[in-house]
Specification:
The protein is mostly helical. It has one domain. It has 13 helices and no strands. The longest helix has 44 residues.
Length: 328
Amino acid sequence: MAASWGLVSVVNKRLLEDVHPIPLNFVVRIVAIGALLAMTVPLTAFHVWPYGFGINAPAFWYIVVAACVTWLVAFTAYYYALRAGRVNVVAPVTSTDPLWTAVFALLLMGAALRASTLLGMAVTICGVVLISRWMDDGAATTTGPVDGAVVPSPPEANAAAPTGDTAAQSGVASGRGVTFQVVALSLLAAAGWGLGPVLVEMAENAYGAPSAFMMLESQLIGMLALGGFILWRRAALFTRRLTRRAGTRLIWLLLASGTLEALYAVLFYLVIDQIGAVLAMLLSATAPVFGILAGMLLLKERLSGRLAVAVVLTLGGVFIATAARLFA
């Protein structure tokens, strides 16, 4: 489950070079629905698992809310953060979602907040703060505006460009603005992803078990909400004119992203059914490890020593906050 989500981050990073965030989210929902049908229909038809396509009214509405929170709010924030920042920064910050799950489980389900959860929150917040300060260390070696690289300007623009201290101060201010934006969007995504599992667990409790219909309903509601937003804003699809080769690569990456997300969704619902939302998010929180490794291998991103410490601190805080439940 965690490995599939870690790989999704890297695949989506590549996709964002060619597709705007919200349309990308919409198209991936379509692919994920097809992949979910390809997975769940045989599993149900051949009785490989005991879960069918049933649903009741309370569970239906829990999934509707979870879908809007997850796909329209959290994923949109995530895609914008991923486009502006690097995987090895966005992934650890969004991995704070188990802490949000613990908070929402307390508020909505009456689950207790342990002392270890509060300690873990404090450690994780320290890690996020350090990431926000050190995220420019070990800048990615990939090029292009997607990674925040500076696009060369024409000579006439250079003639009027600020120099000396003015340019330096402008660069620092711009860098701080991007830092705040990436961290804020990543935390918004984490909060949405933290609320989603609690609503899913409430839906499963209301119906008595997970079902393939819940998985498909979530993706379908998310697709419809995103589609309506795109029509309202008349959002452009592509960031640039695609060559035949780039178009072929885009298709394969979309298939990979949707399939990985569908696999994650199936495993996610099953894990929640077995051990609950908080523990499921603990396991899912290891996804940044896979995402960072894949980013280093496939995107040639570099992880500085200081940033590595901040990442370990963030993930360590998540583990401290939720590990007590694992061994309870």
